[in-house]
Amino acid sequence: MRPLVVAITARALFDLEDGHALFEREGLKAYAAYQREREDQPLQPGIAFPLVRKLLALNALLPAGVPPVEVILLSRNSADTGLRIFNAIEFYGLGIVRAVFTSGADTHPYIQPFGAQLFLSANPASVRSALEHGVAAATILPTGLPPVDRHPQLRIAFDGDAVIFGDESERVSQEEGLQAFHDHETERALEPLSGGPFRGFLSALHTLQQALPAADPPIRIALVTARSAPAHKRVILTLREWGIRLDEALFLGGRPKGPFLDTFGADIFFDDSMHNIESAMQHVAAGHVPHGVSNE
């Protein structure tokens, strides 16, 4: 069993927006001075902080012999300005021990050497590059709202088409209309969908879930899709073919996803559509996956 490894940038983990705005306004020298002056002041949690804390907390529940979950920090800070970030990691007791500081250079080339199955960043260009190299990646944007922790469980929600699955069905919907989409899916109901960029991460998460205690399970996974009947059947049979069981599946038929994600209590939701991300961000942390026909 491979370990579950998540790579995350500092701006997704901590609230660095004041410093980032200063860097954009006054440049690197002012930013470096700002961070050095405050390096003993703990950073506030960022939008992905609850997710990371819950991921790392799973290690206390894993049976012997199962490799631990690991979170890798990737940062465009220098090691000097990054000291404040490591101090914050220590302050909050996060078990993050590996990090890369690139002094402004791209961080995404380091994802694959670490074997990460997921990359979260506030930089859309880095996310696109990671996706192009076969890594599940999402742009997770600060909302200005404090991160909310609704459940002791780790709860992750995924869109289907162009995220877990390929975008071929969504392409039919956008190019030929909803009726053509339903006809397409009905005709191919017994034909498994192709895998999308998040299939590998979903599989790794499911494998980890199976290794954890079944009583009071610490992970809950949901599919939240705009599909409805009759297009549901192909999804269910595809997941069965892959050997993946979801805890919840919401077939919303185009209803806004945000309120449903709020009810589920997602720690993060992944979707390829900015329209759905904007709905989700009003309620939960959301990662935009710039993949497929909606992002061409």
How would you describe what is shown here?
- The chain has 12 helices and 10 strands.
- The chain is an alpha/beta fold and 296 residues long.
- The chain has 2 domains: 5-140, Rossmann fold (3-Layer(aba) Sandwich); 154-295, Rossmann fold, CATH 3.40.50.1000.
- Helix 2 packs antiparallel against helix 3 (28-37), helix 7 packs antiparallel against helix 8 (178-187) and helix 11 crosses helix 12.
- The longest helix has 13 residues, at 199-211.
- The chain is globular, with a radius of gyration of 19 Å.
- The model has no long low-confidence stretch (mean pLDDT 91).
Give keywords.
single chain, about 300 residues, about 35% helix, ten-stranded mixed β-sheet, alpha/beta, globular, Rossmann fold, about 15% strand
Helix content: 25-40%
Based on helices, strands and strand pairing, what is the structural class?
alpha/beta
The domain tally reads: 2
- Number of H- or I-type helical stretches: 12
Cross-sheet strand order for the largest sheet: 3-2-1-4-5-10-9-6-7-8
Shape, per Cα inertia axes: globular
pLDDT average, as an integer? 91
Overall strand count: 10
Order of helices and strands: EHHHHEHEEHEEHHHEHEHEHE
Largest sheet report: 10 strands, mixed
The CATH class name of the largest domain reads Alpha Beta
At the fourth CATH level, what is the homologous superfamily of the largest domain?
HAD superfamily/HAD-like
Tell me the fraction of residues in β-strands, as a range: 15-25%
Rg from Cα: 19 Å
* Poorly predicted runs of 5 or more residues: none
CATH topology of the largest domain: Rossmann fold
Task: Please state the second-level CATH architecture of the largest domain.
Answer: 3-Layer(aba) Sandwich
First-to-last CA distance: 35 Å
